[in-house]
Structure formats: structure tokens, C-alpha cells
Amino acid sequence: MTSTMGATTMKAAVYHRYGPPDVVQVESVAKPIPAANQVLIRVHAATVCAADWRLRKADPFLIRLMNGLLKPSKAKVLGMEFAGTVELLGSGATNYRVGDQVFGSTGFKFGTHAEYVCAMEDSLSLKPGNTTLEDASAVLFGGITALYFLRKGGIAAGQKILIYGASGSVGVYAVQLAKHFGAHVTAVCSTGNLELVKSLGADEVVDYTREDFSAAGRVYDMVFDTVGCSGFTRSLKCLKRGGPYVRVGGSGSPGAMLAGIFAAQWAAMTGAAKVIGGITKGSAEDQEFLKSLMEAGQLKAVIDRRYSLDQIAEAHRYVEAGHKKGNVVILLETARPQM
Fold first, then answer.
1. Looking at domain 9-139+301-331, which of 3.40.1190.10, 3.40.720.10, 3.90.180.10, 1.10.150.240 is its CATH number?
2. pLDDT at 315
3. Which overall architecture, per CATH, does domain 142-276 show?
């Protein structure tokens, strides 16, 4: 294992073909060198999220158009978010010092399932003083996604919002942020996660294994489906006419995706709902906003399981199963003790 400052290689979780979790293997690869305005970070912790297993599995199929038709040709090291220690500054990088503890996201450039990662300095923030690096690593994918789509849906104080998949990596932040904005939150999850979402501030909870959320006669100002599984018919049944139906995630065959597009167009044409989806667009201001909420004790990370880098395939397998609570974190063996 190479972990010294002068080393030119590092350990990383790499995949060379699409497929099941076992296609991801730990290999020795070239240690990255920071370019202009970049920072080299020694990774302490990263997460495995839905975007990672979907890219690894090429699900939905359209992923192959962005990452290689027959095999991955761009993002071969997965991982979108991380926290760690500044190791080296590229030319023009002046916002941080060597030794600073930071957290950030590489977005669709991926690359955080490795001992080191390079990131633009404007994509980083200093770790909140009251938060561990482990917790800080598990904020941005779910937090930015929840924040972006809540705002796109017009979240406002006094609204009644239903959050489907409230215990997942996006859902746990959607619940907390919706409460921060003053909404009344009904959270839908499985039996084992009811107490968790209550602890995050949900006003009401629905156990989807025992109750159909759309059958109770309640009407919501917004339905936020964080996993793409609530179903158009059920969701529109309990959504006020013309209200926002936010739909994040989802996978499947091209035919299933096409059916979803037609359903969204039908809802818009008939005025039944405003269907909101697409790609998350975060900003440095959004990241600082989440950091401020963490420092104020109004936003916390939820970590279900922790794995070493050598257990990356097992982590993928668990996340893909779809039953995790909040986040799954990868702890890097070369990480230095936290201050």
C-alpha cells in the first residue's frame, strides 16, 4: 500500500466492465496531480450512492451513451462525495492550506473511491467544526439533491408535503430540509425506518408495507418521490390538482423510461400535476447553506453502514438492494486521525 507523500501510485476501486458488484476491484493506479485551481485531498471517507451502482451496472441503459457503450471509458473510479485532508495545492489554488479538513463533491466526474482525489477548490468547503469527516462525507449527494428539487418544487412554509422514500440518502435530507422551510411533512418508508424519520422531524409517517399512502384521502401540496417508485397514479391521486410531483431516481428499460416520459407529459397537458425531474444542479452557495445548517445543528448525516475500500463490492451490493438508511460510507485505510 502506498501512502507516503512522495508516492506516485495509490489504491482505488476500479471497474473495467459493466455488471454486478464484483466487477469493482481495488487496484493500484496513478496518484492524481492537481491542475490549476485544484486541490489534492487525502480521502478520509466517501460514500456509495445510487449514482455509483447505476453507473457500474449501466442502469438505465442510457448511461452507456455517456460513459461508454460497451464498457466504461470515462468514469472508471466511482464515488461522488468525500471528506478528507488537503495534501497539495495546484497552481492558483489559494483558498486552502495543506492540512485543512474539507468536504466536497466531484459530481459526475466521480473518482472519490480512492486514497486521493483532485477537486476544484471552489467545489470544497471547510468541514463544519461540530461534524466529523465521516459525517461530512455523507452530506452533499443527498443534501444538494433534496435542496435543489425542493426549491424547484416551490417549497414554502405551511405546505403539506409527502416524501416517499424518506429514509434513503436523499429522503433523510428532504425531511430535514422540508421541516427547515416550515412544511408539514408526511414521510413514507418501511416499518424498520419509522422511528428514524420521526427523529428527523417528520410530522406523520406512513409504513408502505402496511398502508397505501394514497388511500387515506389526504391531499398534499407537493409529492416528493426520492426513489422513483411511488407511481404516477397513486401520487397524483393525493396531490392537489396542478401541484408539483417531484420524481427523483428510477431506473429500468428504455420502454419503462419512455412510459414515464409520456405519463409526465399527460399530467402536464391535462393540468393534473407539474412533474419535476432531471439532473440536480447544485452550487457553492448551496453547499455553504448545508454547511451552515450542520453547524447550527439543524441538519445531520445519517450513516447506516461503514466499509473499508477493500469491501467496496459488498458496499455496492448493499446499496443496490435498496434498503439502506441514509448513507453507506467507505472509510479509507490511509486516512489520518481526525483532529
1. 3.90.180.10
2. 98
3. 3-Layer(aba) Sandwich (3.40)
Global pTM value = 0.91
Task: Say how far residue 121 (Cα) sits from the centre of its chain.
Answer: 20
Q: How many CB atoms are located within 10 Å of the residue 144 CB?
A: 23
Convert the pLDDT of each residue in 199-244 to its tens digit.
999 999 999 999 999 988 899 999 999 998 888 889 999 999 999 9
- The answer to whether the beta carbons of residues 76 and 24 sit under 8 Å apart is no
pLDDT digits (tens, 9 = 90+) for 105-120: 999 899 999 999 999 9
Q: Is the pLDDT of residue 1 over 50?
A: no
| Residues whose CB is less than 8 angstroms from the CB of residue 195 and which lie 6 or more positions away in sequence, other chains included | none
Q: How far does CA 92 lie from the centroid of its chain?
A: 30
Query: Sign of the CA dihedral 76, 79, 81, 83?
Result: negative
> DSSP string covering 242-290, please?
TEEEEE------HHHHHHHHHHHHHHHHHTSEEEE-S-----HHHHHHH
Q: Which residues contact 240 (CB under 8 A, 6 or more apart)?
A: 219, 220, 221
